[in-house]
Amino acid sequence: MSVANNLNLTRIFLTKLDSTASPDEVALLFAEDLVWNVPGDAGALPWLGKKIGRAAVSSFVRDSRTLLARENLEIRDILASDERAVIVGELKSRVIRTGKPIETPFSIVLTFAGDKIATYTMLEDSFAVSRAARTSRHAV
Question: Does domain 3-134 have CATH number 3.30.2290.10?
């Protein structure tokens, strides 16, 4: 794909993610054999770790809407080439179960196959994510 097409698909993804679009509608932007990777403590939250298939996106959208209260999402930049796009930003959310905040800069690296997103890799402060997800609300 071209730089313009990759930027457009990335922006569509971010718009749908920030909307009331259904999890399956968001997932349709991704290849059926998507490689999903959010390195970190795979037991802390269901979308962490490496997964294969479009269902990873549906699960992420559904689970993140249920398990997190998003407080702020700031997209700082979107960089693109003919092969990939990188989303750079900062995220602040709260794990509903524990009441603990997650504040982290992040980068999401997307690659493309045809008019679909083929790989999704999110790099964030995985220690902060795990600590917020695994710490009880009443911990001192």
Answer: no
